[in-house]
Amino acid sequence: MIVAPYENEYRADDSEILICPSGAVSYRDERPDDRTVEGILLRRWAGEPSGPRRWGEHHTRRQVAAMEFLWCAGCGGRPDVDRRGMLWVLPAARVRSAGYPAGPLLVAMPPLCRADAVRALRACEELRDGAVALRVTEAEVVGVRGTVYAGAGGGPGGPAAGNRATRSSCSVIPASAGSSPTS
What we know:
- This protein is an alpha+beta fold.
- Helix content is 16%, strand content 27%.
- It has four helices and ten strands, in the order E-E-E-E-H-E-E-H-E-H-H-E-E-E.
- The protein has helices at 60-69, 92-97, 114-123, 125-128; strands spanning 9-11, 17-19, 25-27, 45-47, 81-82, 85-91, 105-107, 131-145, 167-174, 180-181.
- Strands 5, 6, 7, 8, 9 and 10 form a six-stranded antiparallel sheet that branches.
- The longest helix has 10 residues, at 60-69.
- It is globular and about 50 Å long.
- 28% of the residues are buried.
């Protein structure tokens, strides 16, 4: 999967994150590609894109790009689209816990082409535990889930507990009133 990091890639050290008195965060040596077009600071990755993929993890920059441009999470190409919509394969437990089909789903996994959907069902442990395939007619990027920096009393400081993975979230608005499960 394009969003899965390679064995020889690793998350860069967060110790170089600076927190300004205003509460803004930046890297000491910030580069133009460290932020999204919205100005959100992204986790850095280091190492070489080589070796086997580490399924179940997401490389921040590639995952954000795949969500932004609706690329296939596996190959980076066009996701499968037919008259019912674009193909998304999601963990069944997450879909259930989100209250589907009562409303839109917020997801951090990009869509898939048919071939990579089959591969993902074999390679991803979370999908092997149960998956839901949906055809989606509207998908809008609505936010980024990531580390929230807050100090004591709600001010600037270190990472607040519990929010570690930096990923784009996409509001998936299913076909018609709900998604049409795909065959």
